[in-house]
# Entry
Amino acid sequence: MKSENQIKQLAKGIRIKPDAVVDERVLAFAEAVLAKTTKNQGVVPLRRPSIRSKIVKSPITKLAAAAVILIGVLILTSLFVGTNKNVVLAGVLERVEQAQAYMYKIDMTMTEHTNPEIPMIQKIEGTIIVSNEYGTKSEMRTKWQVDKGIPDSDPGRTTTKLRYILPNQKLEVLIKPDQKKYERTELDDDRIARRKKEDNDPREMMKQMLECEYTEMGRTVLNGIEVEGFETTDPKFAVAKVEDPQDVRVKLWVDVKTWLPVLWETEETINEQMSLHTVVHDFQWDIPVAASDFEPVIPADYTSINEYELPSKFEEEALKGLRFFVEIFGRYPEDIDQNSLVREFAHPYLLRNRENLTDAGLKLKEELESLMDHEQQWMQRAMEISKPIKSIGVFYTVLGDIDRDRAYYGQTVGPEDTDAVLMRWKVSDDEYRVIFGDLSVGNVTAEELAELEKTL
Amino acid sequence: MSEDKYLLKLLRHGDSRALRRLYEKYRTDLFTVALSLINDVHAAEDCLQDVFARLAEGAADMEIRRNLKGYLISSVANRARDRLRRKTRSLDKTEGFGCSTGTTDPVKILIDREESARIFNMLMRLPYDQREVFVLHVQGELKFREIAELQNVSIKTAQSRYQYGIEKLQSLLEKDNTK
# Structure
């Protein structure tokens, strides 16, 4: 009798890999879900510092944050009748708010040691223009430094992002020139406020500073400008952005002549492994701006970030499958939904008891029958034969999974219907891809498709 | 931080490379467990798809208290149970919960080692609850405590089911050897 241990070893020896078609299908679907989720939840790409992913989410924390803001407003109100120190900073905020348009630069360094094997440093340099009338435009260049990366990572790569926050249109436009991608997102007030915080907008920073306990650092000279310094280590400064920061230190230097900010420096330790250092500098106040500065220019060859690109291999495999099906059955499958297709055709008994086979189909049937006494070989061959047919179902299922307005007309369209639409799916707002009866493939407009489908 | 936590972090930020890496890393384990539980290739494939879609969808809010593999294995087990529950509703009740539904052949061809194929077939003859404990503990490397939580039973019950499963497998193998 086998021991428990021997049985366990035997069971552990069962290692079954899904086949490559399944790998593609599972990944394509999961990636489509990921793209959709990222879009819907506003999950930020990693190239932006991870700190942003810690934006307060739970209703309780939101309430707490709201309470902090409320307290902040109360404190702010009291500031004007409070100490001189508070009056000074409140005055800075007032001056900042008077500026109709301003520009500033930002340098951020995010250091992560979450995995000792893969220390990661992101450096972001950006220029941001804010206009009361038109919105915000930012250009951020991110440099990734990963010593040892995950497979396919690209250490040292630099990416650029242009972002337009257009409150009048309630619209955010993100352009990624490196990828030739863009994204338009509807904006609500919450998102606008969140973006301002993420951009380290001096107005938001001032408001936060005024909510905190802070100390004066006295006067000094920075780049030839006499400045007065303020410092806070109050964790409230980051409470709206980061959950439970371990440590925060903020220094603000203000021009003593204009009482406008000259330099901000923040250091936030998010946890033992992650820290963020931000310097906001080169402020220019009341700069001239034009509406055209805030009009996003999206080159014609850029595509939407949210558009999921189907691997071309899927289409090729499906076409191969349809071609093969015609070769053995002389027609197209009536239904290509994966489940029904698999149930009807893509199993080892594919050709058993089948009638109306073509010559090629009969030949395959004979070949399979000749292998009946060699079970292993028979199974192997039967699986090989059913594989391309399965690919048709996989493709059609994935098209459905990612909402591509798919349709299939195998019940009425045959190989002889050369110009009829056998299958179609949406590729862009006004364009469909069509597999015709003769298995030629082409793109048509929605209008042309409507005409073609009238004849079916 | 482990590689999994790091990948999960990347995934939370929408990084599809992390998704691919996690898939490559765990697809065989998960597919093996799914197939050992439901003995239906297509249903196991769907299970795998559901689990990774859920991972992609929920990564942003996901808190993995234990290891990611354990979490994924548990997800497979939950989906396998759902599928079998649905299937059982449409089956003759005398056929039994989780019995082979005539798709053993494609499974067999996926397992190339004769002895592993043999134990796989024996596994299919265990009552589902026993098979689930065995598969999750041996192939999925879950602790009895985790399995007990999944099955909503006490740890002792989970351990007993495992023990009964082992004894039945021993007896089935013995009978098979004497044929």
User: Anything to note?
Assistant: The two ends of chain B are 52 Å apart (CA to CA). Chain B has a mean pLDDT of 80. Chain B has nine helices and no strands. Chain B has one domain: 3-178.
